[in-house]
Structures are given as C-alpha cells and as structure tokens.
Design brief:
Radius of gyration: 18 Å
Family: Belongs to the peroxidase family.
Largest sheet: 2 strands, antiparallel
Order of helices and strands: HHEEHHHHHEEHHHHHHH
Distance between the termini: 28 Å
Mean pLDDT: 76
CATH architecture: Orthogonal Bundle
Keywords: Heme, Iron, Metal-binding, Oxidoreductase, Peroxidase
Pfam families: peroxidase (PF00141)
Strand content: under 5%
Bound molecules: protoporphyrin IX containing FE
Number of domains: 1
Protein name: Plant heme peroxidase family profile domain-containing protein
Helix content: 25-40%
CATH class: Mainly Alpha
Number of strands: 4
InterPro entries: Ccp1-like, Haem_peroxidase, Haem_peroxidase_sf
Structural class: mainly alpha
Length: 333
C-alpha cells in the first residue's frame, strides 16, 4: 500500500488528476444500487468509462480513469501484482486529499474488482436538496446521514466544475449553466481549489468565493436544517473537527458495498497492521504539474470524445424526474 501511495504522490497532476481522483473514489464507492444489493467500491468505474456513452454520469472522472489505466498495470509490474482497481481508486483519492493538505487517512485494503457495471444513475445530481443527499447516504449505511452529507460534500474543497456534461440552455440540463434551480459557470470549486482545508465551509456559510455554486452545496445551509448549518459553522471555524469527521466518514465511504470478511477488517479499525501510514509528501510547485500556489487553477473542461449528441435518455435522468428538479439538473456528482 505504501508503494502505491508514494507512486501516486509522484504522478498525480495537481490541477487535474488529483481532484478528479477524489471524485472518482466517490463515484466508484457510492454507485450502489440499494434495491438490488449491488455495487459499491468495486472498480466498476473502469468498465463504465470504457463504455462512456451508456454511463455518461461518470464522464466527469475520465481523467482519473485514464490515469488508472496506466497506474494500476504499472504498480502490478512493480511489486504489487495483486493490486485491484477498486483499492487503487480509493487509495489514490485519499492521497489526493493528503497532498492538498488534508488528513492522511488509513484506507484499508481488500476491495475486489467486480469487472462489472454499476448503476451510475443512482448518484445524486447537482440540484439535490439536503433531504435527498441525506437519504442517499442513509441508504448507503451511514448512521448520521445529514452529517455524512455535510462532511463528504467537503470533497468540494478541491477541484473544478468542468461542465463535463455540457449545459443545454434549452432544456436546462447539464453542468455549469443557468437553470431554474442551478446557476453558475464552470470554474474552481472554491477560491483555493488546490487546498484541502475548511475553506469550502467558510465560503458556503458566508456566500463568498465559489463554494455554494452548486445547488447541492448551498443546500447544506438550508435555514430549515439547523443541524447541517451548525455543522457548516463548526467546520468553518474548526478545521481539525472537520478533518476528524472526514477521516471517519471517508473510511466508511471507501467501504460501501465491500464484504469485510475476506479483507478481515472493520470500518473503524484505524491504522493498518503495519502501523501508522505516514504522510506522503505534500504537493510542491513544479513546472508542468499544474500547481499554482493557492490560487484558482482551472484548466478547462475535460475533452472527452462523445457521440454527436447524447440523447436525453442516455445522458440524463431528466425523463424520470418531475417538477422543479426536472427542470434544473441533469446528472450526477
Ligand atoms: C453527494 C452529492 C454530490 C453532488 C451532487 C456532487 C456534484 C458535483 C458536480 C456537479 C461536480 C462538477 C462536475 C463537472 O462539472 O464535471 C463535482 C465535482 C467534484 N466533486 Fe462532487 N458531488 C457530490 C459529492 C461529492 C463527494 C462525496 C466528493 C468526494 C468525497 C466529491 C468530490 C468532487 C470533486 C473533487 C470534484 C472536482 C473534480 C475535478 O476537479 O475534476 N463530490 N461534484
């Protein structure tokens, strides 16, 4: 695991691969079809992005997919012959947070590659309300689903809205465009999208900077939900409190749908048998790696080859939704 962590810390590109791989960890783990008891952190992202037109909700993590296609085979030939994509996706997401100044979280090994396709349409969209986000995490086993929504949305300390599924003004669908519920434009998630700290909560609460750009982010400070708003306030003033909660919740997220028996671990086992994981080196400015100090570092939308037109049925769940939400958003986080 340490080999993998160190190799990732040398090869992640700050502006693009790094935040994209945190998002990939979320997508791979959270794509769980509760009704069918299927999916979770199982490497299915690799198949889904080999067939991107059937699974457009994952287009946004195409950068990490390309990275993993090289990284995992490389690591297998360099001393980690049994490395699964499922473990690598979660570990590299963890390394990304660490390199950006976040906590070093011990993410346990043992995830198996399913070689399958999960249902990517189960992911929440950018117009989700707090109730919808909490419902989503509750379905995935979190005992405190509102808190899970607040803590895990903290992933938006990093990265960019890339508008991967381009906004369609006529239908109001897609990322990064004005719709009845979701407004804005592509760009960095926060004023400091290269730093993992509690800036996101600060911007969210004060409505300054970029956080709160997605409706699903703003939903955390819904006046009617005091618990969520109080947590936002707590994290904005107390980075360590956020880091502690992030450590617990991201461990749990990384194990969604994973059978703990073969892996012989529990969610809160803490450090690996080998002891504390140690930190990978923080990101340092180097020419070409996309690092631009603490400033905004948006490098543009991902260029993904796509079919001339994604039909609404392929590209969205719009057809299955109703009311105001249907008018506003298309696809998943
Ligand atoms: C659960 C509700 C969530 C929603 C609705 C959501 C939505 C989104 C959207 C719309 C984008 C921009 C996509 C694009 O323009 O291509 C995005 C990016 C991102 N999300 Fe989320 N997200 C959610 C949860 C999470 C979680 C739990 C994490 C991590 C733990 C996360 C990490 C990220 C990161 C790092 C990016 C930036 C990626 C990049 O720069 O390439 N998100 N999310």
């Amino acid at each position: 695991m340490q080999l993998v962590r160190r190799a990732a810390s040398r090869t992640l590109n700050y502006a693009d691969t790094l935040p994209n791989c945190l998002r990939a960890a979320f997508h791979d783990a959270a794509e769980r079809d509760v009704g069918k008891d299927a999916g979770g952190a199982n490497g299915s992202l690799m198949q889904e992005l080999d067939d991107p037109f059937t699974y457009p909700d994952n287009l946004g993590v195409a950068i990490c997919h390309s990275y993993m296609k090289v990284f995992v085979p490389d690591m297998r030939s360099q001393g980690c012959p049994n490395l699964t994509f499922a473990d690598a996706i979660q570990w590299v997401g963890g390394v990304a947070v660490e390199m950006a100044g976040g906590p070093a979280v011990p993410l346990l090994p043992g995830r198996r590659d399913c070689g399958c396709f999960d249902n990517s349409t189960v992911l929440p969209d950018e117009c989700s309300t707090l109730e919808e986000l909490a419902h989503f995490w509750g379905q995935r086993g979190f005992a405190e689903p509102v808190k899970a929504a607040v803590v895990l949305n903290g992933g938006h300390n990093l990265g960019n809205v890339r508008s991967t599924v381009p906004h369609n003004t006529a239908s109001g669908t897609g990322f990064g465009g004005a719709g009845p519920n979701c407004i804005g434009a592509p760009g960095p998630m926060t004023a400091q999208p290269n730093l993992f700290d509690s800036q996101y909560y600060n911007e969210l609460y004060t409505f300054t900077g970029r956080a709160g750009y997605l409706f699903s982010d703003r939903a955390l400070v819904t006046p009617s939900n005091i618990t969520a708003t109080d947590l936002v306030k707590l994290y904005m003033n107390d980075k360590e409190a956020f880091f502690n909660d992030w450590t617990n919740f991201i461990q749990e997220m990384s194990l969604i749908g994973v059978d703990p028996k073969p892996a012989k671990f529990g969610v809160h086992d803490g450090f690996l048998p080998g002891g504390p994981i140690g930190r990978v080196p923080p990101m340092t400015p180097e020419e070409g790696n996309g690092y631009a100090g603490t400033g905004a570092n948006y490098t543009g939308a991902i260029v993904v080859p796509r079919q001339p037109l994604l039909s609404e049925e392929q590209g969205s769940r719009l057809a299955n939704t109703t009311g105001a939400q249907a008018a506003g958003a298309q696809t998943a986080g």
